[in-house]
Design a protein that fits this description.
Strand content: over 45%
Structural class: mainly beta
Number of helices: 4
Low-confidence stretches: 1-6
Shape: globular
Largest sheet: 13 strands, antiparallel
Distance between the termini: 50 Å
Number of domains: 1
CATH class: Mainly Beta
Helix content: 10-25%
CATH architecture: Beta Barrel
Mean pLDDT: 86
Length: about 240
């Protein structure tokens, strides 16, 4: 099969890691604090296990910045071996937002490795919005749309993945139980649309997402649904250590 047709398939496989980056640290957590998350496919098999550890914390201009090491095991299907990789992430906490920098997504080794499996050398840049959630959610609040793009140069061929988060709204307060314990959360729902473009080929993937946010911390549980409304995966915090 021509690479022109293989590449969009490979790039579409990268959408999930671009859309799923959950941690639930707070500004009170110190260096060495850890959290672990598990992602289950709808069929019950584990597609990802990640441990996050704060390795550096700084405060300036009313904001706290956490440098976070992610140790991740992941696979594409039930019969695959888990692949191990590490990622450095940066999280910023302001008075009203918890922000994941768009550069976190560009540095993801899963993206680079999947393209290298095709024998491709790739250059990346990120543009657009950083990804944020409210640090103090309010029931009924509607959040602004966010758009970010990862632009690729694949052996001289330009390609891109554009991800738009839209129609996000805080629906209600809800006490939930996950493997790590019970939390008082706010349920946020919204849509995520990913567009992959390379040469004359364009593909899209639309997801509906539910996220349970702990005020001042972040997402401790999330669910993803495909465009037909079928649940595809669930991610939950399974442990934490301050």
């Amino acid at each position: 099969m021509s690479r022109c047709f293989v590449l969009p398939v490979v790039l579409m496989m990268l959408v999930a890691p671009l859309e799923a980056k959950s941690q639930a640290f707070s500004v009170e957590d110190g260096e060495g604090a850890e959290q672990s998350f598990q992602t289950l496919n709808v069929d019950g098999w584990i597609s990802e296990l990640s441990t996050f550890r704060i390795i550096h914390k700084s405060n300036a201009a009313g904001k706290s910045t956490l440098d976070i090491l992610q140790i991740r095991q992941s696979r594409d299907n039930k019969s695959s071996e888990m692949a191990l990789d590490t990622i450095m992430l940066k999280q910023i906490y302001s008075a009203d937002k918890i922000i994941s920098l768009k550069e976190n997504f560009v540095d993801d080794p899963l993206i680079k490795n999947k393209l290298k499996e095709q024998g491709l050398e790739v250059k990346f840049t990120a543009t657009g919005d950083d990804i944020s959630i409210p640090s103090q959610p309010i029931v009924g609040a509607k959040l602004p749309d966010e758009v970010f793009s990862v632009n690729f140069e694949i052996e001289g061929v330009a390609a891109s993945i554009d991800v738009t988060s839209s129609d996000r709204q805080i629906l209600k307060k809800e006490k939930i139980k996950v493997p790590a314990g019970e939390f008082d959360t706010y349920l946020m729902e919204g849509n995520s649309l990913a567009k992959v473009s390379i040469l004359f080929i364009k593909q899209t993937e639309k997801l509906f997402q539910k996220q349970w946010i702990v005020p001042g911390r972040g997402v401790v549980k999330s669910e993803s649904y495909n465009k037909r409304g079928k649940k595809e995966s669930i991610t939950e915090m399974i442990s934490y250590k301050n």
